[in-house]
Amino acid sequence: MRRTLASTAVLALGTLSALTACAPVDEEPTASDPGSSPSATEEAGVDPAECVTDDMLLEPGVLTVGTDSPAYEPWFVDNDPTNGEGYESAVAYEVAERLGFSEDQVTWTKVPFNTSYAPGAKEFDFDINQISITPERAEVVDFSAGYYQAAQAVIALEGTAGAEATSLADLADLRLGAQTGTTSLTAIREIIQPAEDPSVFEDTNAAKQALDNDQVDAILADLPTAFYISAVEIPGSVIVGQFQPETGEQEEFGMLFEKGSPLVACVDAALAAMTEDGTLEAIETEWLSDVVDVPELQ
Hints:
Layout: H1 8-11, E1 63-67, H2 87-98, E2 106-110, H3 113-116, E3 126-127, H4 135-138, E4 141-143, E5 148-150, E6 152-157, H5 168-171, E7 176-179, H6 183-192, E8 199-201, H7 204-212, E9 218-222, H8 223-233, E10 237-243, E11 251-253, E12 256-258, H9 263-276, H10 279-287
Parallel strand pairs: 1-2, 1-3, 7-8, 7-9
Antiparallel strand pairs: 4-12, 5-11, 6-9, 6-10
């Protein structure tokens, strides 16, 4: 796996600790035990390096990994998942290595976020794209164990009504927006419940442009993405605060698989080993930022 330094802007944000995320959930199908695949309890005793067989793969001898395009920082760097830079790219290559794949045996394919969790056959072995594990999605796809714990963050321009908010109730009277299909959009509708219907954007770039153009007072994204937006992409923007979705239980990102994929057990075994030996935490520290000073919105 390649371990290069993050961009200067991301490094300036500091080292990471416990952040939270923003993956879509609006139009998905539903399930009972979100994070568990049939193999989720079977990773103990599984050697990831001996686990994968060709019949588990889309293409024998090749690990096909999906993600969206553009692929945003700090999850990927320079919109290039193949360079091993950024949190999710680094995690994907580390998992691949533990499964016995060299870098040149990993291939990437474009998968629009909103189609990744649709039912049916997949053109990837797993997809890694800040996809939150939800019961709805788990009805029709399988997930790995969580590789990142996530929270929602609110971004606004300095000196605007959005930047003045100090609670979720303060947000309810504002013009809010988020990417379609994300847990951020669901959080707006179900938790904040604004007086005005939220603006729905095709991708994060469109949401950022709307904020810059004063079409919305604030946008929502996962916390690491919010840090990058505020520090690098939108001068004069601030992170208003963060909050946990739904009941306050920790939201998690998981790698997504075709329903019934036997590869889930192998990936879970790799993730378990990465957690146990500290590799996953080290990747998080390298590529994500410290959120200690971000206030909690209640």
